[in-house]
Amino acid sequence: MSDQRFAVIGLGQFGSAIAKNLSKRGAEVLAIDSSLDKVESLKDEVSHAVALDATDKKALLSQNIQDVDAVVVAIGENFQGLLLTTFLLMELKVKRIIARAMGSDQRKVLEKMGITEILSPEDEVGGNVAEMLINPEVVMCIQLPDDYEIVEVKAPQEICGRNLEDIGLRQKYKLNLVTLLRKQEGSTSEGTTKDYHIIGVPDSNTVIEKTDIIVIFGLTKNIERFLEINK
Q1: How many CA atoms lie within 13 A of 34 on its CB side?
Q2: How do strand 5-9 and strand 70-73 relate by DSSP bridges?
Q3: Which of 180, 178, 168 is nearest to 229 (CA)?
């Protein structure tokens, strides 16, 4: 159980997902939106859900928002409202502010304000979808600064049945294997199932199975080279 307290302002699909996941992790979550309907739909899944105008300083103070560990400003449709809310949070000396930016222009404005933690979910999803279209074997892609990526990819046929020492990910491709996801049998009330589970930190003797999903980290160009060679 976490003893951390967070606030999420803006309860669209993105903000609601953050609030729900924080709550599932055991954090105390204050969920805020100007829409009573959105607040009502989330009130049973977080610690506190309040309908208020986040551009009203007194309203924010009424919730002691300056005392939380971090605030996520996830307002998506009203950038002016996002900016004013963010400015008020800075005035109230909130310890940590994470703001959503829809596009490079919004990101630049937030950076000029001094916000260093900026989320751009649309850009991240766009990059992930593009990678999946170009390389259908890619399950998930997280693009990192300086042309690095973390990629979940279905184990290429050419490396299946071989151990990591033989494959030589680091030596041949300059890539690091983070972990493996492997299908394992489980049981439910409806019978036997096969779900993917993380098998931990693989060692040099770990053999790749044909249904494995491998999680690799490295430069984009090296990941692309690895996927191309092993098609």
Answers
A1: 13
A2: parallel
A3: 168
Residues 205 and 178 both lie in one domain = yes
Q: Is the pLDDT of residue 36 over 50?
A: yes
Q: Are residues 10 and 115 in the same domain?
A: yes
SS3 state of residue 95: coil
The tally of domains found in the chain comes to 2
Asked whether residue 113 falls in the same domain as residue 9, the answer is yes
Distance CA 183, CA 212 (A): 7
- Residue 48 structural domain: 5-119
Contact (Cβ atoms closer than 8 angstroms) between residue 195 and residue 184: yes
**Chain centre distance of CA 171:** 30
- End of a domain among 91, 119, 147? 119
Q: What angle do CA 135, 137, 142 make, to 5 degrees?
A: 70
pLDDT, tens only, 169-195: 999 999 999 999 998 876 555 555 568
